[in-house]
């Protein structure tokens, strides 16, 4: 029997991570690089990408782009593929939460949220899939949310996209898993990121969220490493169309 640890080895794989300039996207790039992958971080802000590349070293490259720009998906695919070849792994960590109450949702806020949170993961994946099919191997990881199944105040647009991510993940798995491409989603609980800054700046609110978990605390960035590595490696070859909640048991209570 082979060493089970080899199931998690990403040496020789190329990973593309959107939203890699901060938060869970940045952490994802570091984790996959640490497992041996060559990583291409994608985001709109160049300076944080430069910092990420410097931290990882020679196995990192970056692409500055707006992933919600559908007209530029082909150019994005080509730019991501240029440094190390077409990606074997795509992690969709880019996202936005306008936090507009239902009565205050604007056309712009709604369209921007859907474009970035729901449309981009599909169309970018669609552009990357042909080379994964050629190899007979691919991993796509979407980012779901507590709001995939729960309604939070000020989250109607965000929640709609994250519920959509749940079904998108299943539908993408149905379409592409026969070709060796697994598609799953991670559903983070409350982690300290730019999207949740308002939560963590309110100690009472942060403590209340922590008390709603089974483990009694909010997430730490390193808590995402293991679940992500599972879904991006050979260890999950028979896992597809699933949402893995990484929330300390928040949704279990």
Q: What are the SSEs and their pairings?
A:
Elements: E1 14-18, H1 23-34, E2 38-43, H2 46-56, E3 60-64, H3 73-81, E4 89-92, H4 107-135, E5 138-143, H5 156-176, E6 181-188, H6 197-200, H7 203-211, H8 225-231, E7 243-246
Parallel strand pairs: 1-2, 1-4, 2-3, 4-5, 5-6, 6-7
Helix pairs in contact: 1-8, 3-4, 4-5
Task: Please report which band the strand proportion falls in: under 5%, 5-15%, 15-25%, 25-35%, 35-45% or over 45%.
Answer: 15-25%
Write the H/E string, N to C: EHEHEHEHEHEHHHE
Counted by DSSP, the helix tally is: 8
Helicity level, as a percent range? Answer: 40-55%
Summed over residues and divided by their number, the pLDDT gives a mean of 96
Strand order of the largest sheet: 3-2-1-4-5-6-7
Q: Which spans of ≥5 residues are poorly predicted at pLDDT below 50? A: none
According to CATH, what is the topology?
A: Rossmann fold
CATH arch. level architecture: 3-Layer(aba) Sandwich
Q: Give Rg in angstroms.
A: 17 Å
Helix/strand/pairing class, anyone? Answer: alpha/beta
- The oligomeric state of the chains shown is single chain
CATH class assignment:
Alpha Beta
Total domains: 1
Largest sheet: 7 strands, parallel
Count of β-strands? 7
Distance between the termini: 39 Å
Notes on the protein architecture:
By secondary structure, this protein is α/β, with parallel strands linked by helices. The chain has one domain: Rossmann fold (3-Layer(aba) Sandwich). Helix content is 40%, strand content 15%. The chain is built from eight helices and seven strands; from the N terminus they run E-H-E-H-E-H-E-H-E-H-E-H-H-H-E. It has helices at 23-34, 46-56, 73-81, 107-135, 156-176, 197-200, 203-211, 225-231, and strands at residues 14-18, 38-43, 60-64, 89-92, 138-143, 181-188, 243-246. Strand 4, helix 4 (107-135) and strand 5 (138-143) form a beta-alpha-beta unit. The longest helix has 29 residues, at 107-135. This is SDR family oxidoreductase. One of its GO terms (biological process) is fatty acid elongation. GO terms for molecular function: oxidoreductase activity, acting on the CH-OH group of donors, NAD or NADP as acceptor.
């Amino acid at each position: 029997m082979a060493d089970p640890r080899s199931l998690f080895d990403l040496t020789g794989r190329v990973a593309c991570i959107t939203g890699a300039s901060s938060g869970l996207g940045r952490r994802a790039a570091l984790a996959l690089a640490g497992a041996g992958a060559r990583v291409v971080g994608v985001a709109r802000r160049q300076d944080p990408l430069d910092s990420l590349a410097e931290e990882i070293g020679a196995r990192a490259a970056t692409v500055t782009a707006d992933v919600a720009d559908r007209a530029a998906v082909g150019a994005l695919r080509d730019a991501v593929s240029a440094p190390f070849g077409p990606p074997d792994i795509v992690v969709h960590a880019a996202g936005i939460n306008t936090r507009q109450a239902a009565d205050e949702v604007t056309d712009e806020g709604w369209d921007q949220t859907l474009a970035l949170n729901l449309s981009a993961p599909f169309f970018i994946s669609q552009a990357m899939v042909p080379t994964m099919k050629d190899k007979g191997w691919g991993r796509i990881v979407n980012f779901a949310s507590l709001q995939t199944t729960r309604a939070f105040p000020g989250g109607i647009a965000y929640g709609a996209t994250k519920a959509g991510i749940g079904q998108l993940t299943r539908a993408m798995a149905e379409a592409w898993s026969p070709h060796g491409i697994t598609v799953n989603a991670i559903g983070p609980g409350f982690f300290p990121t730019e999207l949740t800054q308002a939560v963590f700046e309110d100690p009472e609110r942060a403590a209340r969220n922590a008390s709603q978990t089974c483990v009694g605390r909010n997430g730490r960035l390193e808590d995402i490493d293991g679940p992500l590595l599972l879904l991006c490696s050979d260890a999950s070859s028979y896992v597809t169309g699933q949402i893995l909640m990484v929330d300390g048991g928040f949704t279990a209570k």
